[in-house]
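Z., the sequence and structure:
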Amino acid sequence: MTFSYPLFLLLLLFLIPIAAISAANVRNIFSRSAAFTGNQNLSDKAFLKVVFIGFAEGIAFIFLVIAAAQPSWGKKYAQEESVFTDVAFVIDISRSMTMNDVQPSRLDYAASVVRLLLSEDPQFRYSLTVIKGGAFELVPMTDDREAVRLACGALSPDLTTSIGTDLGESLQNLDTIFPQNMKTEKIVFLLTDGVGGINGRRALCEKWKEQNITVYTVCIGTETEEPLKDRFGSPVLYQNRPVAVPAESADLQIIAAETGGLFFSSEEKTAISQMRRVLLERNGRLEKKSYSAGNRDDSAWFSFAAFLCLGIGYALRVFLWRKYI
């Protein structure tokens, strides 16, 4: 149990001397009354009544002090509705994505996935971001699906002059894709071959979980060391040797698992249908989610108990043993 105003509990220290003084005074009064009337039995019953009344009122005082300190046994939870489902498509456009181990190429496969996942449901909004040595938002979050489709047709490593794919660095500001201070369900589809791995993966996952971002990862390409080819089917050479860039799925699988998403691979024939099913399950759904809204205030229970004890004391004072008053 925790208290919002624990200093109020110091008032309980006054209860002991007050109770002792009151008990002594009452005892003296009834002793004198017994000596005066000569009826010791009547005096003892009346004294017992006063003890019960004092006990009830003392307990009421304790409960009132605790209520003033505002006790709490746990967290207060509230519910909010996700009005929109925001889907952010994040596509790797590094040179390795031009490999044609997935036909017609890894990058073209990613673009086709995005086009197929676009839904006409008005509760869905979409954005398109590309990563290659950094993150570049091509289409901000919008319900204009045609804008996303058109942007998919322009995907190319030449969209940026950045060299290579530092996935960890590129994904640092993923949360800025989503509108702030809005009730939305945040979903990310990360489409990449995973080449180079994802530095700082654990910190990224913790950050996304705190912001309720669910990441679905799509590993595009085969994990065998086949030579890299350009869009025209010619081998890419480095120092007169073919370059082989196998896809790397390990980090992508971990990210999906830790953020509550799913992992998909282009090598699975049912991958696209499974991705579509993920969005169809959210079609038209207003999802209620609980979140912590601070400490729960349980002072009302103690206030109720205090007034109940005062009522008992009043009943003892007025209705019980009336002939002994």
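The chain is about 40% helix and 20% strand. Residues 40-68 form the longest helix (29 residues).

Let me know what you think.
H.
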